[in-house]
Amino acid sequence: MNATTTRGSLLAALACVLVGGSFTANSLLGDYPYAGGQFLRYGLAFLLLVPLAGPGAATRLRALGAARWLRLALLAAVGMVGFNLAVLAAERTAEPAVPGVFVGCAPVVVAVLVPLLEGRRPQRIVLYGALFVAVGAFTVQGWGRTDGAGIAFSVCALVGEVGFAVLAVPVLRPLGPRLLSTVVCGVAAAESALAGVLADGTGWLRRPDAVEAGALLWQAVVVTVVGFVCWYMGMQRIGAERATLFSGLIPVAAACTAPLVGTGSYGAAQVVGSALVFAGVAVGSGAALPSARARRSAAERQTAPERSLEKL
Q1: Where is the EamA domain (predicted)?
Q2: Which of 207, 245, 184 is nearest to 49 (CA)?
């Protein structure tokens, strides 16, 4: 792995670890209105990201066109607001492990879907790595009680996780990671407010207590501002296929942090599952390949997204 791919891998890994750790914060927001919480999270993140958007932000936004603005709206609705809503809805009738297992399949879906959208064949080494990651995520979380609704909403969560990566590919280059994160947070805040008014009326937003405020601040500042920028910086360097491999670290991080608040344990299954996730990431990212093959794989990673974006 060269310096660019190494840096991209580390950024993607950091982003996914932060998201996994945020599951602990989610457990503290069970009584807070969903849409209101999303509005506060993404609205605060938007305000913090605006100064970081970079020079020429307004010019780049005006040059996007209607089609790419629609894609940004879908990215926020599917990959952010919709994803969180699907997880919450799934956990009403299913144990948290169930949506976690489905989301853990995202690397496999992305490893197949992105190459097909770009007019090329999936890379077997990435697909093998994605399968290792999915099996590892399942091992870490196990399987829990569920029903048809729980499975249906878990599938929706999987769609949201895939959409968060795939929908961003054509707009990542013209906007860059910081401006892209800024825009989607602003759009997600507006969509959350609209959903809250329509679903809950005047009760969609209230003042959070001290514990809820701390959880929302963590999600906004650390998970969203830092995590989103790191995620898209990583994806810019190594491509959506390999970046999504690191989403297998989300259940690993969640399993590691759960004992801190007494909501879970880290035992033998978590150790084995974590090892499988790490092996899958190493294989799929090229870190476990001989140096010559790794150099060829890195070259493909750098040129494939460029060819795809040129077509768009």
Answers
A1: 7-139, 165-283
A2: 184
d(CA 266, CA 281): 21
Tokens 């919450």 label which residue? 88
Alpha-carbon separation of residue 92 from 86, 98, 130, 137 (angstroms) = 10, 11, 29, 21
286, 298 in Cβ contact below 8 A? Answer: yes
Q: What is the pLDDT along the chain (312 residues), one digit of tens a residue?
A: 678 888 998 999 899 888 876 666 666 777 889 899 999 999 999 999 999 988 889 999 999 999 999 999 999 999 999 988 888 788 778 776 678 778 878 888 888 888 888 888 888 888 888 888 888 878 877 766 788 888 899 899 899 989 998 999 999 999 999 999 999 999 999 999 999 999 888 889 999 999 999 989 999 999 999 999 999 999 999 888 888 888 888 777 767 766 665 555 667 877 888 888 888 888 887 665 554 444 455 455 555 554 544 444
41 within 8 A of 76, measured Cβ to Cβ? no
Which residues in 67-87 are b (16+ Cβ under 10 Å) and which e?
A: ebeebbbebbbbbbbbbbbbb
Q: Given the structure tokens 């768009």, which residue do they identify?
A: 312
| Sequence-ordered alpha helix ranges (H) in 63-105 | 66-76, 83-93, 97-103
Helix, coil or strand: residue 96: coil
Within 13 Å and on the Cβ side, how many CA atoms surround 106? 32
- How many of the other CB atoms lie within 10 Å of CB of 112? 16
Q: Is the dihedral of CA 276, 278, 282, 284 positive or negative?
A: positive
For residue 243, give the nearest of 286, 201, 214, 211 by alpha carbon.
Answer: 286
Stated pTM of the model? 0.81
Question: Taking the chain, what is the end-to-end CA distance rounded to the nearest angstrom?
Answer: 28
| 279: number of Cβ within 10 Å | 16
